[in-house]
């Protein structure tokens, strides 16, 4: 672990000019809470010194079983001002199914510890649409989450991805995916409950109290350049994407030799258009027609966009309001299909 953290600091220095002055810092992916708070503080301090700035938002992802009051207090001392806690569910049987190391009681205590440490911006993650989750249990999960009064809730449908234990069990016939109708009903229940509680859904999977949208994640959906550090990290500088090697040994060797182990993907006009559509339509604001025009896409792409929008407007899958194209919130569960119809 010390070697990896040192390599990330070295990469940070090597790539400091990849983007301009960053506003946010996000320590997540994998399990950063396995690190001592002092180790994460070292990363944060190195970033502040390198860019000579105090980040507007500094988020750390935490697993509930790693959280103590003292740990949270130390993170706050190092400048962390936002926590994202991977609760997933408050039911122990669900957590065992998902191979999580914590239980429901630990999840509740984790959020409480963050509050006792003085954090005023706490987000939690929940998962729905998985085998064994009843609608009544999902309703209880939502109400339990609201009772803890976080500022942010992210909710995702469980994916059965190749290379995961879930996929292996699925291929062996030991796991049956939830019917999409049931998953859609659970998603709609989430939208209804949070809306009734005064929350805003600002992105397909993200809900926040007023003033507490994730500034870091929102930048992704606006197409703002970003720098990703560490094995498997991805970066975007406005014209190309760069992906670090995922193999830990190769990553460490490359950094020690001052040779960045990454691959580049130059964005063609088609890829730029597709990403522009995909990211903007994930949000409540939707896609700005003026911003689309400023991208300078050629005539064939603009014609395809207009034809697709017209067709989807007629089907009630899109709305147009004050220069923005949006997917109605009641159609967000089928967002992927709508976006696919607009791609080139």
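Q: What amino acid sequence fits the structure above?
A:
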């Amino acid at each position: 672990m010390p070697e990896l953290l040192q390599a990330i600091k070295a990469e940070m220095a090597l790539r400091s000019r990849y983007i301009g002055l960053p506003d946010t810092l996000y320590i997540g992916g994998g399990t950063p809470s396995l690190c001592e708070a002092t180790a994460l503080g070292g990363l944060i301090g190195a970033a502040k010194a390198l860019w000579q700035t105090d980040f507007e938002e500094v988020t750390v992802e935490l697993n509930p079983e790693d959280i103590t009051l003292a740990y949270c207090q130390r993170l706050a001392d190092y400048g962390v001002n936002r926590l994202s806690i991977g609760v997933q569910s408050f039911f122990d049987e669900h957590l065992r199914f998902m191979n999580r190391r914590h239980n429901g009681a630990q999840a509740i205590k984790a959020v409480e510890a963050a509050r006792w440490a003085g954090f005023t911006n706490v987000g939690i993650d929940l998962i729905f649409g998985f085998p064994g989750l009843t609608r009544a249990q999902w309703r209880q999960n939502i109400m339990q989450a609201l009772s803890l009064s976080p500022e942010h809730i992210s909710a995702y449908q469980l994916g059965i991805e190749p290379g995961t234990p879930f996929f292996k069990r699925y291929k062996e016939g030991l796991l049956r995916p939830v019917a999409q109708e049931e998953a859609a009903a659970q998603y709609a229940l989430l939208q209804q409950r949070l809306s009734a509680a005064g929350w805003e859904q600002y992105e397909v999977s993200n809900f926040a109290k007023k003033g507490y949208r994730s500034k870091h994640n929102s930048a992704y959906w606006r197409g703002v350049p970003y720098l990703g550090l560490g094995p498997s990290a991805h970066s975007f500088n406005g014209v190309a994407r760069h992906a670090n090697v995922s193999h830990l040994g190769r990553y460490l060797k490359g950094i020690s030799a001052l040779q960045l182990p990454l691959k580049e993907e130059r964005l063609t006009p088609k890829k730029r258009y597709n990403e522009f559509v995909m990211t903007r339509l994930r949000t409540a604001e939707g896609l700005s027609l003026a911003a689309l025009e400023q991208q300078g896409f050629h005539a064939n792409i603009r014609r395809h966009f207009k034809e697709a929008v017209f067709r989807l407007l007629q089907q009630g899958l899109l709305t147009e309001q004050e220069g923005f194209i949006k997917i109605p919130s009641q159609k967000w569960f089928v967002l992927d299909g709508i976006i696919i119809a607009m791609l080139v």
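Q: And what stands out in the fold?
A: The first helix runs from residue 2 to 14.
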